[in-house]
Amino acid sequence: xxxxxIFISTAIPYVNARPHxxxxxxxxxxxxxxRFYREQGNEVFFLTGTDENxxxxxxxxxxxxxxxxxxxxxHADVFFDLTKKLNISNDDFIRTAEDKRHIEGAQNLWRLTExxxxxxxxxxxxxxxxxxxxxxxxxxxxxxxxxxxxxxxxVHEENYFFALSKYxxxxxxxxxxxxxxxxxxxxxxxxxxxxxxxxxDFSISRSRxxxxxxxxxxxxxxxxxxxxxxDALSNYINGYGLDDxxxxxxxxxxxxxxxNRFHSVYWIGMLLSAGIRIPDEVLIxxxxxxxxxxxxxxxxxxxxxxxxxxxxxxxxxxxxLLREIPSSGDGDYSEEKFIARYNGDLANGLGNFASRVLTxxxxxxxxxxxxxxxxxxxxxxxxxxxxxxxxxxxxxxxEGDKYINDEKPWESGDVKTISKAVSILKEVALTLxxxxxxxxxxxxxxxxxxxxxERLLFPRLN
Length: 462
Ligand SMILES: [Zn+2]
What we know:
Blueprint: E1 5-10, H1 21-39, E2 43-50, H2 55-63, H3 68-85, E3 92-95, H4 100-112, E4 117-127, E5 132-134, E6 153-162, H5 168-176, E7 181-183, H6 185-196, E8 202-203, E9 205-207, E10 217-218, E11 221-226, H7 228-233, H8 235-240, H9 242-247, E12 250-256, H10 260-274, E13 281-285, E14 288-290, E15 293-294, H11 305-312, H12 314-324, E16 331-333, H13 335-364, H14 378-382, H15 386-407, H16 409-412, H17 415-432, H18 437-448
Parallel strand pairs: 1-2, 1-12, 2-3, 7-13, 12-13, 14-16
Antiparallel strand pairs: 4-5, 4-6, 6-8, 9-11, 10-11, 14-15
Helix pairs in contact: 4-10, 5-6, 6-10, 11-12, 12-13, 13-15, 13-17, 15-17, 17-18
The chain binds zinc ion.
Zinc ion binds next to loops.
């Protein structure tokens, strides 16, 4: 097998609040890719972490009267804990305020792009929610479209600018020719349309005063702090190491739709300027609504992923996010839907089939495997259609279920029928490994040890 060097990342979230279910979605999606590429025999480096140098974090810390460094550490710990609770297989976790390699790497990237950096007196509208200067034309009734109710503040100062406009044609070509593949297509078109309006140079620093003395210093100018996105984007290289990044066969970013521009345009411009390899794929997921409504603190409808995991188990949470939410579209969470998925697909579907088949196999000593058709979901996973991959696997499960219901091997004791059912179960478990690593492992262990399940997978909820 041709072993490839593959880098996979999530975005790094701001740590101004606790993680919500959307963060869990992104982690789980990237985790499936990382586990899948590893299963295929590749050398994968999977990175996640936290974005700590933003003004948003400073304001959130001020609000609760806590020292910024302490505040971000406390929140970063919760995000780190979430990776453990969800059984995420990341190889590293980078913290942009604390990791020395990040601070040095961000400054190094700055130096590498210096030929495209210039100083300019500037007046603009800044949305702290986005951590971005916004165009007048992007506003809806004078408010940021991503942050309704928030009027951007007018900022006047002398900043460093990055000459993004120089790279307009090059970036446009790379995306159009799919040398950078943006999935789904609608997000690719959105970026191509954005580029058509003309790429403008963007500010990549702020005064130490406006940054409230928080963030990474601009190399050679202690009066300026790097723009948080300039530092944050470099985390991918800093976490992997520039050398590994350059040698990687494939670089994949998994991000939310709100930050497409930063990854598919600004980041590409910075890398082109620095002469560093660019990513191959940007896979973009949508947003989760709760009971049909946008998640917002004011509505009080944020769903705490920790509570869900505690209540239903992490594999059930992984399954819901991967199956119910279309990988590259918007989806909805509700407790009713969660319980319906759990009982229908996991308790009655996978759990019941595994338990019936293995109990029969043990009783009739029918563990000799026979050839059954392989389940091919690789192309769906490459295309970031993780929900569709699960649909395919569950179709096989349903066929397996129908097969034993029709054949009734518990009446006939037909060993060949049972062997076939065990073989189908094994294929299902193998294909499910990146999605539900623990349930798959239990099933495969039982098959290897020629025994039944030691405990019921996904006991039914009432
Ligand atoms: Zn905004």
